[in-house]
């Protein structure tokens, strides 16, 4: 039977419309987990995490200051308050001293850009509940009505985007001492008043107002995703939000979700897998190994040095991950010079070695135990061998690569090809030049087939 021309036209229109709208995701993990990760995220590899809030005022011990003082009852926190503040002083009394008077978003963005980072994730709200924007559901517990009297989320976002970096927002689902959340918790999370009145309105507001490229969810571990209505939010985010085609999410959307559901996987803080994972992942790591927020009592021995940071990043990228490195600004809005020094050092190393990091893929072998540790990355037919210490010798063996008479070996930063010879079974021996000084103590050999 011949199909009428009008019906053919209608069918063609319907198919075209369906194609233009793309896949529609339903609010269940099977559907949401099928969404392809936007390509930009895997290409950028390195980002900066920023933990900033009222906890930056006491700047003692940890960004969990309030919890350790009032719930965990850690003696050092109690003693700190007894010695330095009058009786009856509450945590909320810290907020007016969160001045951020030296906060210059362009200065921060310049530092982040100089680090070689391609995305920045700012704390919009930590577990203390204080929002770094004028959230309409936060009463006066926010940075516009209190403390800085500024839209910190918006100000930094504008500066970051002027430099063509991706901008992401960290958001804690739960709040330690919010009475509405505690009421829901008391009910065994059978009521959802906090989700309906606070958590979800804030998430929708953040997305609609600031259009982040990334949502870094946290504070999910006490209640299941069904309490948080996570799948409903993510379905809207992927289908209908203003960032539906570019937004990336992590895996902290409810008890039992991490390392299992979501966009890419954070798993536990400072997650360090022992082998190549089968899903895109990210390691969040702090320069200050004790705290994510700024600490006035930090010691140099507690900070990661530049070689340690570079080794950690190389390891992560070789295993297919992204590296999100945290700094905690001061309450007055400064990036401490010791943190800035680390960030600029990373950028200097990446200027020479960045092609072995950005837009690379894990190679068939991720590491090799040569005379010094070697990590591999790849890009098309090019293989990069990153040496994370100086071999202190003129010749160096790589046992894993397969070579041909067309193979060209270079040292990144040195344009002259290096002399090399194949080994009997596989691999090659390379004649190294005098390696240039590197504060990062890492160098890259590039092998073009």
TrEMBL record:
Residues 366-447 form the Alpha-L-fucosidase C-terminal domain. The record marks 284 as: May be important for catalysis. One of its GO terms (molecular function) is alpha-L-fucosidase activity. Its main location: other. GO terms for cellular component: lysosome. It is found in: Lysosome. Residues 1-20 form the signal peptide. Keywords: Glycoprotein, Glycosidase, Hydrolase, Lipid metabolism, Lysosome, Signal. It catalyses: an alpha-L-fucoside + H2O = L-fucose + an alcohol; a neolactoside IV(2)-alpha-Fuc-nLc4Cer(d18:0) + H2O = a neolactoside nLc4Cer(d18:0) + L-fucose; a neolactoside IV(2)-alpha-Fuc-nLc4Cer(d18:1(4E)) + H2O = a neolactoside nLc4Cer(d18:1(4E)) + L-fucose. It comes from the Eukaryota. SMART domains: Alpha_L_fucos. It is an enzyme of class 3 (hydrolase). Residues 21-355 form the Glycoside hydrolase family 29 N-terminal domain. InterPro entries: FUC_metazoa-typ, Fucosidase_C, GH, Glyco_hydro_29, Glyco_hydro_29_CS, Glyco_hydro_29_N, Glyco_hydro_b. The keyword Signal applies. Pfam families: Alpha_L_fucos, Fucosidase_C. One of its GO terms (biological process) is lipid metabolic process. Belongs to the glycosyl hydrolase 29 family. Homotetramer. Alpha-L-fucosidase is responsible for hydrolyzing the alpha-1,6-linked fucose joined to the reducing-end N-acetylglucosamine of the carbohydrate moieties of glycoproteins. This is Alpha-L-fucosidase. It comes from Sinocyclocheilus grahami. The gene is LOC107556374.
């Amino acid at each position: 039977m011949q199909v009428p021309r009008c019906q053919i036209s209608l069918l063609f229109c319907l198919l075209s419309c369906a194609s233009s709208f793309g896949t529609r995701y339903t609010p269940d993990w099977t559907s949401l987990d099928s969404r392809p990760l936007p390509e930009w995220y895997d290409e950028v590899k390195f980002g900066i995490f920023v933990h900033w809030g009222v906890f930056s005022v006491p700047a003692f011990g940890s960004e969990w200051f309030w919890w350790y003082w009032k719930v965990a009852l850690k003696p050092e926190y109690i003693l700190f308050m007894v010695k330095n503040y009058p009786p009856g002083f509450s945590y909320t009394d810290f907020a007016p001293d969160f001045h951020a008077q030296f906060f210059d978003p362009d200065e921060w963005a310049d530092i982040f850009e100089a680090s070689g980072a391609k995305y920045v994730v700012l704390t919009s709200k930590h577990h203390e509940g204080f929002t770094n924007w004028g959230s309409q559901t936060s009463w006066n517990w926010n940075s516009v009505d209190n403390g800085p009297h500024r839209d910190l989320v918006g100000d930094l976002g504008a500066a970051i985007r002027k430099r063509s970096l991706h901008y992401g927002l960290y958001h804690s689902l739960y709040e330690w001492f919010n009475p509405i959340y505690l009421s829901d918790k008391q009910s065994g999370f059978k009521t959802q008043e906090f989700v309906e009145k606070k958590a979800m309105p804030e998430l929708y507001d953040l997305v609609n107002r600031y259009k982040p490229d990334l949502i870094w969810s946290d504070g999910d571990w006490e209640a299941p995703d069904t309490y948080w209505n996570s799948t409903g939010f993510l379905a809207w985010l992927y289908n209908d939000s203003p960032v539906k085609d570019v937004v990336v999410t992590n895996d902290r959307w409810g008890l039992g979700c991490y390392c299992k559901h979501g966009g890419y996987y954070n798993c536990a803080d400072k997650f360090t897998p022992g082998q190549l994972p089968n899903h895109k992942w990210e390691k969040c790591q702090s320069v200050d190994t004790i705290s994510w927020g700024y600490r006035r009592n930090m010691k140099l021995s507690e900070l990661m040095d530049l070689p340690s940071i570079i080794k950690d990043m190389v390891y992560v990228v070789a295993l297919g991950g992204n590296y999100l490195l945290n700094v905690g600004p001061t309450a007055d809005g400064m990036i401490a010079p010791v943190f800035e020094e680390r960030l600029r050092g990373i950028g200097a190393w990446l200027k020479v070695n960045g092609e072995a990091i950005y837009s690379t893929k894990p190679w068939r072998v991720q590491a090799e135990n040569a005379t010094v540790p070697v990590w591999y990355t790849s890009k098309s037919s090019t293989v990069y061998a990153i040496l994370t210490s100086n071999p202190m010798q003129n010749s160096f063996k790589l046992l894993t690569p397969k070579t041909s008479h067309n193979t060209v070996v270079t040292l990144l930063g040195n344009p002259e090809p290096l002399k090399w010879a194949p080994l009997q079974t596989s691999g090659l021996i390379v004649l190294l030049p005098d390696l240039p000084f590197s504060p990062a103590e890492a160098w890259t050999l590039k092998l073009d087939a």
